[in-house]
Amino acid sequence: MSALAKDLSEVLARPDIWRGDRLVDAPIPGVPSGFASLDAHLSGGGWPRGALIEVLLDGVGLGELSLLLPTLARIKEEGGWTLLVAPPHEPHAPAWAAAGVDLARLAVVSPVRPADTLWAMEQALLSGAPEAVLSWAEQIDPRQLRRLQVAAADGSALAFLFRPARAAQESSVAPLRLRLSSGHEGALTIHILKRRGPPLHAPLHLILPRPARWRSHESSAPLAGVGVSASAAGSPRRSVVA
Amino acid sequence: MAFPRLPLEALGDPSSPDSSLAVEEGRRIVACSAAAGSAGIRRGMGVAAARTRVPQLRVRLRQPSQETDALARLACWAGRFTPRLSLAPPDALLLEVGGCLRLFGGLPAILDRLAGELAAQGFSATHAVAATPQAALWFAMQMPGVRCDTPAATRQALDHLPSEVLPAEIARTLHRFGLRRLGAARCLPRAALAQRIGREAIQTLARAYGELPDLRTDFAFPARFAQSLELPSAVENAGALLFAARRLTAALAGWLAVRKAGIAACCLHLRHRQGSTPLTLAFAGATRDPPRFERVLRERLQRHVLAAPVEALRLEAGTVADLAEENGTLFAQPGDSRHAMAALLERLRARLGEARVFTLAMAPDHRPECATRRGAAGTADVTPPVRRPFWLLAIPRRLDEIGGRPHDRGALRLLSGPERIESGWWDDGEAAGDLRRDYFIALTPDQRWLWIFREARLAGDWYLHGFFA
């Protein structure tokens, strides 16, 4: 009896056996996201390498990049490259630099055609050169997703794919899928739709660094300052005089 | 290395090896394709006789000048393997590989690589290894595949060579004595034999056996790389062009290896019946890596729309930069990613265009529109201002003002500001121009973080300029 129990525990210890109630012990440790409460729910203790990570949200400006900043800063320390494929707007270099991204190792690809976006992302993942590939795709079908996942699994890069929130309805081969929405008082709410592990029903709430303190109401002072007129409320704070 | 099919292969016909093709000179076949050879066509056969055997045989006229060019190109290419080589016209190359065996991991490895790279260029070669150049040449033609790396083994193998390797007249004389092998001739008294077949033949034999020094002039690599390649017929598809251009890039890579240099750009001229099209191949850094040449070339050719059929190619090396030989590392180093990244960017640029793949740098300008510079190595000493958005709209979008408040899908809540940015009086009328703006960080009802500004004048309009993502 005891021999049988021992055999069972040996079997369960095998890396290719996964018990449905636990997070998978990833063979490659993940890259810590910089948010302990998020890492605790990801297999491998962070963003998985060599796996497509889908980040679903509508539009921009929720804090989706702030979520990745600790990771990008870590890549800078290691001297790795970051590649942006088809970003939704022009990247503003001073903001990226101030956030700790190494501009000398940040490359941007902005293809004209959607097909080229997929091609560029696939090439980047296959090349194994960049440490992180961030790409944005409006339309992508399951077959293309599968190709990207295969390409991602070939290398060890962090492959983030930003897609519209409606994609949550579609099935996807990506091993990790997150849906972002705005949370309470400036927090970011993350629904982990899919992960290597049991489903997580409760969303996570992360406090991200924000450019300004979140307030439920705006203080009337700044608006009055301009709204009335510059001379009436005193000159606004001048940051630049040239 | 001998190239028995050089007259045929120098013409650069990329047609399949199954087609029957031959080259004639003076109505005699001088070379034929493998398919034609297996149908019974031999060197020296009359063209008429050959046609009776293979009616669909395509016969082309020999082009000696193209053979010379092809051999010189092959010599350039072989520079990647050894800097000491010499031509053995009309159709052979002699490579001194003794000094570079360690580098390539032994004789079998270097021979494999030679054969593989030749096949990619569409050349079939027979090769042999021997202790003396003359012996190697004879073996390559008569006993391909022989590898005698010691003088003793070389002499032993030479003894078995048929006397036909010597000039035809001398071979006939030897045959009349019943001497069919070189070994038999070597047994005869040297002086008596010299009287019969001449001093020259005796010396050739002595050089082959390593008894006399064999002085050959090393191939002189050209000072500047600019080589042309005539195409057998006007070419319109990228695949055939790539095949032909591969011969040029292979030669370029070898030429660069000999000078320990690399290039950041080279120019491939596609010559048409009238005029020519220059195609610049740009690399992310100085390189002489054939796979990189090939990748960029393929992407460029695929993207290029041919104006007219191409009749000839010409490859000119751009500025040559010193490129040190790389030391192999035992373990993969993080620094490797730099090369991989350069190769990736090159590949993306080749397909998507130079302007579509770029790096970013900060520019010392307070105007947000001018603070990002593409491509150029940035000024590192710019201190980035705080509270700037990751994404900037190329053109600020005007926001409605309702009840004195800016609206974007609902009333915006201003959380921080104003921050006055006032700059650019000197380039009035330029793209960005003279700005006077008050910037605010604003929150939409659905909690998106925006960067908006109001023109700093009385009742100025509100604009959305960026997103704090």
Work out the largest interface and the residue count of each chain: A-B, 71 and 70 residues
* Anisotropy-based shape of chain A: globular
Give the % helix of chain A: 25-40%
Q: Pairing-aware structural class of the strands and helices of chain B?
A: alpha+beta
The CATH level-2 architecture of chain A is identified as 3-Layer(aba) Sandwich
CATH topology of chain A: Rossmann fold
What fraction of residues of chain B sit in β-strands?
A: 25-35%
Identify the quaternary structure here. Answer: heterodimer
**Average of per-residue pLDDT values of chain B:** 84
Give the overall shape of chain B: elongated
> In the CATH hierarchy, what is the class of the largest domain in chain B?
Alpha Beta
Note the gap between the termini of chain A.
84 Å
Unreliable spans of chain A are 220-242
Tell me the number of structural domains of chain B.
4
Quantity of strands of chain B, as a count:
18
CATH class of chain A: Alpha Beta
C-alpha Rg of chain A, in Å?
22 Å
Question: Number of helical runs of chain B?
Answer: 15
In the CATH scheme, what's the topology name of the largest domain in chain B?
Answer: MutS, DNA mismatch repair protein, domain I
Name of the CATH architecture of the largest domain in chain B: 3-Layer(aba) Sandwich
Spatial order of strands in the largest sheet of chain B: 14-13-18-17-16-15
